């Protein structure tokens, strides 16, 4: 296992949702002790309130499903990567950037590294993310494209908000979409109070108290390009200005205004095709790939990392040693395509909804319909 990163903890400060299928796949890949530590470091969705949908003025538009029976967990990406690196142990070689792939005269794959070294292997699996060198080699081109949205994330301790905003946001995740494609997701993470496994002695969570992890999203355009060059306080201020320009109510922006400026970061949404048939445009062989390398998934469905973990478990199950590698990879890639198509279809629904509000008609409709839907929601609640 080779990774270009030199420090597994040097990654985005946001969180990852792992549903039941992702956890059951992970159980097949790591030791029970790692699984227990992961659960002890995770926030259980079943312990938080129902998700809420808001409009840009802070009016309730609707609720998400009842989560009381949910097995899903949220975990800091840093915590997850650290535990996975521990599970890999000495097999993980950090600081090794892959620069190219080749096949030798015997048909065996060769991986070249930026430091000039190379290795030959029976099977190469590219788990190298959205801009995968391995998948690009296989597909003879990029496997994903910018989805048209630019995102920014940050972390805000719940205790840092006013009592009114703490009450409004509650112990739940929220999503608000306004005119012109401005959207704000606010995730709630509490791996201590809402631990999926009550074993604090096993917890390695980097989040130590109730925290909102927000994601601001805008359609990518010449007007948003400059945001990418900003950092810290300047980026936070520019994001707030952008929401205010679109007339978002002041209190809905408190979660950004009171965020730790050091936690604010930009990320670009990339997406592969939603059509399963498009996802592995190569013949099955001794080089394959998994996760975002094949089905780069915007974070809007919270399924990308879970899908990558399930890919890895499926691959291992197919490589049972009794069939030829090419046949095993063929079967694995059929599963990979199906799952990739499903997660991309789910994630692109929200992306398309956000982009639809960035038309003149969409902006007018969002502004006009939001109060109507909010009033209908209030009426429904008062009748219960
Ligand atoms: C803000 C945000 C929130 C998200 N929230 C969720 C969520 O709630 N749930 C969810 O399931 N998913 C979520 N995702 C998506 C999720 O992070 C990705 O889908 C997931 O990480 C993909 O896993 P992967 O292993 O395929 O790729 P990555 O996690 O991108 O890992 C790729 C690895 O390959 C290494 N690498 C890359 N290139 C090279 C190279 N040339 N040589 C050597 N190593 C290389 C990188 O260092 C990295 O370690 C979110 C994404 C974002 C941006």
Strand order, largest beta sheet: 5-4-13-14-15-12-16
Radius of gyration: 22 Å
What is the molecular shape? globular
**Associated small molecules:** flavin-adenine dinucleotide
Sketch the topology as an H/E string, one letter per element.
EEHHEEEEHEEEEEHEHEEEHHHEEHHHH
Number of alpha- plus pi-helical segments: 12
* Strand-pairing-aware structural class: alpha+beta
| Beta-strand content | 15-25%
Low-pLDDT runs: none
How is this structure best described in words?
This protein has 384 residues and is α+β, with helices and mostly antiparallel strands. It has helices spanning 20-27, 32-40, 77-88, 133-139, 163-169, 222-225, 232-245, 254-257, 292-295, 304-318, 325-356, 360-383, and strands at residues 2-3, 15-18, 43-44, 52-54, 60-63, 73-76, 93-94, 98-103, 109-113, 118-120, 124-126, 145-157, 174-177, 183-189, 211-219, 265-271, 287-289. A seven-stranded mixed beta sheet has the order 5-4-13-14-15-12-16. It is globular and about 65 Å long. Bound molecules: flavin-adenine dinucleotide. The site of flavin-adenine dinucleotide has 28 residues, from strand 1, strand 2, strand 12, helix 9 and helix 10. It comes from Lentzea albidocapillata subsp. violacea.
């Amino acid at each position: 296992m080779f990774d270009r990163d030199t420090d597994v903890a040097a990654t985005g400060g946001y969180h990852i949702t792992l549903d039941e299928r992702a956890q059951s796949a992970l159980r097949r890949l790591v030791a029970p002790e790692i699984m227990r530590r992961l659960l002890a470091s995770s926030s259980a969705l079943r312990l938080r309130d129902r998700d809420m949908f808001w409009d840009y003025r802070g009016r309730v538009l609707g609720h998400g499903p009842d989560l009381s029976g949910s097995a899903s967990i949220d975990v800091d990406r840093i915590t997850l990567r650290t535990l996975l690196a521990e599970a890999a142990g000495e097999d993980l070689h950090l600081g090794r950037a892959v620069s190219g792939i080749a096949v030798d005269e015997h048909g065996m794959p060769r991986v070249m590294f930026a430091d000039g070294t190379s290795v030959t292997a029976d099977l190469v699996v590219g788990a190298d993310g959205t801009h995968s060198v391995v998948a690009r080699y296989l597909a003879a081109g990029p496997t994903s494209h910018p989805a048209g949205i630019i995102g920014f994330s940050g972390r805000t301790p719940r205790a840092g908000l006013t009592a009114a905003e703490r009450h409004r946001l509650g112990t739940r995740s929220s999503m608000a979409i306004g005119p012109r494609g401005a959207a704000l997701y606010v995730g709630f993470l509490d791996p201590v109070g809402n631990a999926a496994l009550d074993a604090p002695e096993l917890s390695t969570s980097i989040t130590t108290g109730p925290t909102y992890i927000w994601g601001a999203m805008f359609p990518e355009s010449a007007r948003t390009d400059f945001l990418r060059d900003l950092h810290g306080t300047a980026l936070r201020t520019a994001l707030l200005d952008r929401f205010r320009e679109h007339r978002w109510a002041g209190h809905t922006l408190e979660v950004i205004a009171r965020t730790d400026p050091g936690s604010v970061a930009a990320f670009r949404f990339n997406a592969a095709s939603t059509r399963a048939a498009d996802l592995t445009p190569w013949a099955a062989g001794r080089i394959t790939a998994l996760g975002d390398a094949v089905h780069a998934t915007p974070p809007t469905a919270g399924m990308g990392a879970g899908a990558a973990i399930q890919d890895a478990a499926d691959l291992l199950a197919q490589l049972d040693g009794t069939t030829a590698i090419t046949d095993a990879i063929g079967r694995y890639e059929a599963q990979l395509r199906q799952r990739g198509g499903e997660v991309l279809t789910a994630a692109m629904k929200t992306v398309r909804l956000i982009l639809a509000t960035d038309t003149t008609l969409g902006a007018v409709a969002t502004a006009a319909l939001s109060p109507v839907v909010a009033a209908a929601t209030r009426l429904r609640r008062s009748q219960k």
